[in-house]
Specification:
The structure holds two protein chains of two kinds. Chain A is an all-alpha fold. Chain A contains five helices and no strands. In chain B, 25% of the residues are buried. Chain B has four helices and no strands. Chain B is mostly helical.
C-alpha cells in the first residue's frame, strides 16, 4: 500500500492529526442547520416587513421564535465567519494581511453575534418596551 | 563572469486562471456561490443592526424601518433575498456533492441551473407575499 506520509512524519511515527477536517465539518453542520432556520427566518421577516415596532416585538417575544432566532444567529454568524476564512485563505497571500483579516472577522462575528443574541434576550424578557410613536 | 553561480530558476508553469478558461455553468455558479456568500455576510451585519434597533427602542427601530423602506433599502433587501435563496439552493447542491451524488458533468450542470431557477422563483414568491401583506 502506498504510504502518503512525509519522510519526517514516518520517522517520527506520526499519523494524521485527525483535526484537519474540523473547519470543513463545522461549515457543513452549520449549513445543514441553516436550511430550516433560514426558511423560518425568511417567513418571519416576510410576514413582518414594514410592521410596527410592537408587532416586531410581539413576534420576537414568543419563546419559540426567540429560541429559533438565537439558533439562527449562532449558525449564521459561525457559517459566515468560516466562509470568509475560506475565501481569504484562497485569495489573500500576504501572511500578515491574511491573518489580520481572518482574526479580525472572527472577533467581529463573535462581538456582533453576541450583541444580536443580547438584543433578542432583551426583547424576549420584555426589556424593550415600544416608545410611543415607534 | 557573473559572480552569482546559483542556477537561474525557470519560472514554474502556472495553471490557467479565469482569463484563460472558457466560461461554463458550473464555474460561473461556483463563483456566484462565493459572491453571494460574501454579500450575505454584509447582510448579516445589517440584520444585526435591525435586531439591536428593535431592542434599543421605538426611535431606533423607526430609523431602521425608515431606511429599509427607502428605495436603496428595498433594493438591498431584494438583492439579499436573491443571494440568500441562491446560496441556500446551491448550498444544498454542495451538500449533495459532499454525499457523493450528482457529480457527473450532466447532473452537475443541471442541478446548478435548477438551483438558480429555484432561487429566482423563491425570491419572487417571497416578495409577492411581502408586498401583499403591506
Amino acid at each position: 500500500m502506498t504510504d502518503f506520509r512525509t519522510p519526517m512524519g514516518r520517522v517520527r511515527g506520526l499519523g494524521a492529526a485527525k483535526e484537519g477536517v474540523e473547519h470543513w465539518w463545522a461549515q457543513r453542520l452549520t449549513a445543514i442547520a441553516l436550511i430550516p432556520l433560514t426558511l423560518w427566518f425568511v417567513v418571519g421577516v416576510v410576514t413582518h416587513v414594514g410592521a410596527p415596532h410592537a408587532a416586531a416585538l410581539a413576534w420576537l417575544g414568543q419563546p419559540w421564535n426567540a429560541g429559533l432566532m438565537i439558533l439562527f444567529i449562532v449558525a449564521a454568524f459561525h457559517h459566515g465567519q468560516l466562509g470568509m476564512q475560506a475565501v481569504i485563505e484562497d485569495y489573500v497571500h500576504k501572511e500578515w494581511l491574511k491573518l489580520t483579516l481572518i482574526v479580525g472577522i472572527r472577533y467581529a462575528a463573535i462581538v456582533l453575534g453576541l450583541a444580536a443574541i443580547l438584543a433578542q434576550l432583551w426583547i424576549v424578557f420584555g426589556r424593550a418596551a415600544p416608545v410611543a410613536g415607534g | 563572469m557573473a559572480s552569482n553561480d546559483a542556477p537561474v530558476a525557470r519560472p514554474r508553469p502556472l495553471s490557467p486562471h479565469i482569463g484563460i478558461y472558457r466560461w461554463q455553468w458550473t464555474m460561473a455558479l461556483s463563483i456566484l456561490h462565493r459572491l453571494t456568500g460574501i454579500a450575505l455576510v454584509i447582510g448579516t451585519v445589517a440584520f444585526g443592526w435591525w435586531i439591536i434597533a428593535a431592542a434599543a427602542g421605538g426611535e431606533h427601530y423607526a430609523t431602521s424601518q425608515w431606511f429599509w423602506g427607502t428605495w436603496l433599502g428595498r433594493i438591498m433587501l431584494f438583492g439579499w433575498t436573491l443571494c440568500l435563496f441562491y446560496h441556500l439552493c446551491n448550498g444544498i447542491r454542495h451538500l449533495i456533492w459532499d454525499a457523493g451524488g450528482a457529480l457527473a458533468l450532466g447532473p452537475a450542470k443541471a442541478t446548478g441551473i435548477l438551483a438558480l431557477l429555484a432561487a429566482v422563483l423563491l425570491t419572487v414568491v417571497a416578495w409577492v407575499i411581502a408586498y401583499g401583506l403591506l
